Amino acid sequence: MTDKELISQLQGSNAFQAQQIKLLEEKVLLLLSQIQSQSVKKDSHNSSLPPSSDIVSKPKNLRVSSGLKSGGQLGHKGTTLEISATPDKIIDLKSSFCSNCGQNLQDSIFTLQATRQVVEIPPIKPIYEEYRQYTCHCPHCQNQQIADFPIGVNAPIQYGSSVESLVSYFSVYQYIPFKRLQNVFSQVFSMPLSEGSIGNILERSAQKCTGIYQIIKQQIANSSVVGADETGAKVNGAKWWIWVWQNLLNTFIVASDNRGSQTINSVWKDGLPNATLISDRWAAQLKSTVKNHQLCLAHLLRELIFLEESELQPFAKSFKELIVSIFDTRKIIVKAYLSDSNEAIAFENRLNELLLITIDRELSPNTAVFQASMIKYRNYLLPCLYNLDIPPDNNGSERAIRNVKVKQKVSGQFKTGQSAFCIIRSVIDTLLKRKLEVLPYLNQIIKLQPVS
Questions:
Q1: Torsion over CA: 365, 371, 375, 380 (sign)
Q2: Does a structural domain hold residue 105?
Q3: 10, 37, 54, 305: which could form a disulfide with 43 (CB 3.0–4.6 Å)?
Q4: What pLDDT shows up at residue 85?
Q5: Quick check: is 31 in a domain?
Q6: Contact (CB, 8 A) for 434 and 219
Q7: What domain range is 304 assigned to?
Q8: pTM of this prediction?
Q9: Do the domain assignments include residue 78?
């Protein structure tokens, strides 16, 4: 073999080995990427999983420090126990004898030295109101005139509106389970209640709240901004779903055994034609008949954190920075953006540039899927920049849904009464949003809307 042939052979061998090395390097990078992806677990900081599901590590706090000290800030109005100017009971403390010489002090002149007050709750006993119906004959026409019982007083013995509203308050607002509620009424109010009676009271209260519930639904239907969410719930062992539609003043909650468009179409037969709907990327929500959509950017932010940690993709980091900038900008603006706003246009351009980035589907499959979804729903990302009434997140809906989760954590599941819970809770959350005291107004609603 000549030197020229040997050199040619060695060159071919080197080229083959270089190609093999390149292929192996690519495989190593792919394997490292897969290992990295598997090592990053989803928890509350990088997904929609609740904090209670975090087991190993403490979730990362996404909030930026304000630089202020913890606790009440300067100017914060605190509360304290105050002396009453009109005490209900006065106990005079006067000495009968001198502690020094033993002299009787009964006829001495006493001067008030100091006062102290103790706040007590008197024993609570139920009040039985008896309505006596009388009859008489009219002296003119001899008609037998019988007095009417008040509206809602239908049985020889029944619970009044104060009992029904208190049961609803404790069960639906304070999440007290039936068994504990039995103990509360027996030991605190001297009123034994069976679990069956509690369930019946809640059903009656829900019927009495139905009129307000329908008004809430109508106001949601006419709203220009609505947030929506859904969560799983156990009903007698079966999988159900609790849906919520809400805005700044109203909360409307529905129980359904279906998580798809069937529920939305049955609740909103005409859709929400005036509304921009804030939701996550659940397909059924995005199919709703609405004026426009706004994706929850907080949901997207958690997804991007997971993608950044698992696939180390620069796209995820840049997209996350874009969303954080939107949140920061929303905090400082004082009026709604117009369509020709320079800042809004800058965000639009940043978004377009990110969506044009080419992502390797083999190295970063999840990031590529996320980008494709963002391209599909591109027009649902920035409506919050043009109207300050549209929030960039769906936190209002998640707060409403959280009440259902707390109820289930305390009670385990709904055996029955899931619809009654949704009706009463809708009324309670709406009262809270309007800064109205829950128990007095709930009592008024139940008292003024008797069930025949």
A1: positive
A2: no
A3: 54
A4: 92
A5: no
A6: no
A7: 297-393
A8: 0.79
A9: no
